[in-house]
Design goal:
Distance between the termini of chain A: 34 Å
Oligomer: homodimer
Helix content of chain A: 25-40%
Number of strands of chain A: 14
Strand order of the largest sheet of chain A: 2-10-9-8-5-3-4
Structural class of chain A: alpha/beta
Largest interface: A-B, 66 and 66 residues
CATH architecture of the largest domain in chain A: 3-Layer(aba) Sandwich
CATH class of the largest domain in chain A: Alpha Beta
Radius of gyration of chain A: 21 Å
Amino acid sequence: MQRVHNFSAGPATLPLEVLQQARDELTDWNGSGMSVMEMSHRGRHFMAIAARAEQDLRDLLAIPPNYKVLFLQGGAHTQFAMIPLNLLRGRASADYLDTGDWSLKAIGEARRLGGVRVVASSAANRYTTIPPQAGWETDAQAAYFHYTPNETIRGVEFHQVPVLANAGIPLVADMSSNILSRPVDVSRFGLIYAGAQKNIGPAGLTLVIVREDLIGQARAGTPTMLDYATFADSDSMYNTPPTYTWYMAGLVFQWLKQQGGLAVMAGRNQRKSARLYAAIDDSDGFYRCPVAAACRSWMNVTFTLADASLEPVFLQQAEAAGLSGLKGHRLVGGMRASLYNAMPEAGVDALIDFMADFRHRHG
Amino acid sequence: MQRVHNFSAGPATLPLEVLQQARDELTDWNGSGMSVMEMSHRGRHFMAIAARAEQDLRDLLAIPPNYKVLFLQGGAHTQFAMIPLNLLRGRASADYLDTGDWSLKAIGEARRLGGVRVVASSAANRYTTIPPQAGWETDAQAAYFHYTPNETIRGVEFHQVPVLANAGIPLVADMSSNILSRPVDVSRFGLIYAGAQKNIGPAGLTLVIVREDLIGQARAGTPTMLDYATFADSDSMYNTPPTYTWYMAGLVFQWLKQQGGLAVMAGRNQRKSARLYAAIDDSDGFYRCPVAAACRSWMNVTFTLADASLEPVFLQQAEAAGLSGLKGHRLVGGMRASLYNAMPEAGVDALIDFMADFRHRHG
């Protein structure tokens, strides 16, 4: 077996140790005589797996006791609807910051289901910056403030949590692509959500971390399965949860603790991305990253080639060299290297070496 | 490793050959250098896996070309909402048949979101029969007719598909617990849905088979993720689908084809359940099945002990004998043996032997 370095944006590479443990336990978990896939979600084996996963996540993120952790299905797209349905709470509108394609998707769905005010947008400069907070036109009566801490498609990331003028407005964040990549002060947020398939585990699980006082105020007519209270009141077992994906997420949380936790991951992630950005910036314009230096993502490094006709050649040769998933999102083209927690530093080094060699041969 | 016989109602036992293949491919699928869990859902590897799974399902059920197959998340509970949101199509109400706890859940959610008429109920006899069709008070203007072909909790199953007086009314069926257990004429239905965790694969995937003319008429204000059109228009890849669960379902479909298809499974399932019901009926009242003979489920065999105080002893000794998951649903107590496709005939024989021995020791 020759494992490739997988730079896909999501579903994404997972720690090899986690995959090996899953493989070893696949037909018989811990002497239970069955696979985790086969366990009743209400049996003692799976209940223990589920509880440990939640506790490990709480430990990693230091989640305060007045926050619920929900293990849901449907991806961030379902959250785009659940958030206005649950958090508008009779107010006229919520504030949304537009920093890219994922912000826009959240805004689009919220607009269909309730009032939205876009406080600022970086569309005019092709989402290569974050709008300066001085220009945000926030609403003191907003039901909540929504933003996207990391925009996966263009590679734009907030390196600080915004401080709102009105601290009483719940901050809501789509952390699908940067959760667990560094420590974060959960108490600053009303709600954090994340699809699993980048830094958590396989696709098919969505984590929601929500302050308890925001639960239980869903709009009349909200489907039961879109009401946070349904899951908060049942330890996320109102119906059968995605048990195997929950287990895999738990293995990833254990792995993160073994690595030393999120401060260690932050150091590693900063180092990995800094090395790759330096390789791009030091290429005499052969490679180019369009994103402003202050908001370059640690997770998704986007770049283009000065000679765009070389891009297919680059991708093909990279693939042949065992560097997979480097094609940029179809909306923007170019290249994108996703450097989530599970991407080892050696993978980034291999990419940098390949890029230097490619430039040498084609520069 | 000693695998148990797992009679859980769901998540449920999977074919050992399927689990072994999943294990062998876990860190490297087909020389791709990555796990299926790590693959981009839009990459060629996963697209091939997804397409093959759909084709195999179409082959197994002989699904006509004017039906879409959707691979969704959220379980049958989410369908309880999606069905009225998508299929009421401006009509006053839909007809629901009440044959047990799962019917009631579907009715409850539809009532929250639209008009429901309950055409008949077997509640009065504790859901041990199916109401005779002569007594159904159907509505000629109903938007659709919903029923539950197999009630998992009490073990009641339809052995024929109802023929409605008004053939133009779409028949909607929750086949979560008996899909793929026997051949079915899909063209008789407007929509079939099923959570995966019984006869399809691990939890976290929901199959919907829907006639194309019923798609695209969702009520205004329906969240995008609850609109069948969203998934019909995108080959179920509007957002990241539960890729690994989809792959596992595909392995189960391949296994079913290798077994000889659904006619073979039907024979096996009928045989397994008939042997177990005979063991119950021939126990001189030591064991007793409360369900009327004509509607006893092939999938979920429920029974009690004449001496209820022996039931915990039975369950404990069964567990010690490698017969797991036999406890009845908490709503009804007693015992339940789920005999889905993946339960081998040897497992049923082991249970019958244990029951005879237990009766010998305690009768």
